[in-house]
Amino acid sequence: MVNRLSLLVLALLVMHLQVQTATKAKSSAAHSAREPFVGVWRAVSISDTRPDGTEVPDLYLGPHPIGLLIYDASGYMCAGSMNPDRAKWANPSKATKEELAAAAEGYDTYCATYDVDEPQKRIVHHVRVGLNPNDVGVDLVRTYVFDGSRLKLSGTDGLEPGFKFWTFTFERAKPSASFAK
Which pick of 11, 73, 115, 180 has the fewest CB atoms within 10 Å? Predict the structure, then answer.
C-alpha cells in the first residue's frame, strides 16, 4: 500500500513538473514574441490605400496625426491618436453636441490585450475598452513590419468604401522627446 501511494505521489509530482515546465515555456515564447513591441511608440503617419495602390492621408486623423501606442510585456496595450487640427470648443468647459461629434470624429482610442503571431507577422488586439463601442469585445488583426526604429501596422477595419487597407506608421518614442512634434 505504501509503495503504491509513493508511486502515485511520485507520478503526480512528475506530471505537475511537466505541466509547469510546459506553461513556463509557453509563457516564455509569448514574452519573446512580444519583446520587439514593448515600449512606447509615437504616431508618424496614417494612410489609406486604394485598390490601384494610391495612398491618401486618413480621412479622420489627417496627414499628421498625433498619438501614442503603448505595449507592455505582460500582454496589455493601449492606443490613442487624434487629428491635431480638430476645432476647439467655443466654451472650453462645455461642448455642444455638434462639437462633441466633431471632436470624436478626429480621435480614436482603445485598450486591449494582445497576442503576436510571428509566423504570420500579425498582432491581434483583443479590445476591452474603446471609443468606438463596436470595437469592444472584438479582435482587431493587424499585420506588422519593423523597419529600424519604426513599426508599421496595417489593417482593414474601419475603412471607408473604395479603400483596400490602411497603414499606421509609428516610431519608437525617446524618453526625453516632446509628445507633440
Answer: 180
d(Cα 111, Cα 115) in Å, to the nearest integer? 13
- Cα maximum dimension of the chain: 84
pLDDT digits (tens, 9 = 90+) for 4-52: 545 545 454 455 445 555 445 455 656 789 999 999 999 999 999 999 9
Cell 472584438 locates to 138
Three-state DSSP state, 63: coil
Which 8-state DSSP code applies to residue 62? B
* Cβ(124)–Cβ(139) below 8 Å: yes
Compute CA distances 108 → 8, 112, 132, whole Å.
56, 14, 8
Question: Would you tell me how many other CB atoms lie within 10 Å of the CB of residue 25?
Answer: 10
Helix, strand, coil % in the chain, rounded to nearest 5:
25, 40, 35
φ and ψ at residue 176, rounded to 5 degrees: -95, 0
Give dist(CA 145, CA 151) in Å, integer. 6
- The whole-model pTM stands at 0.78
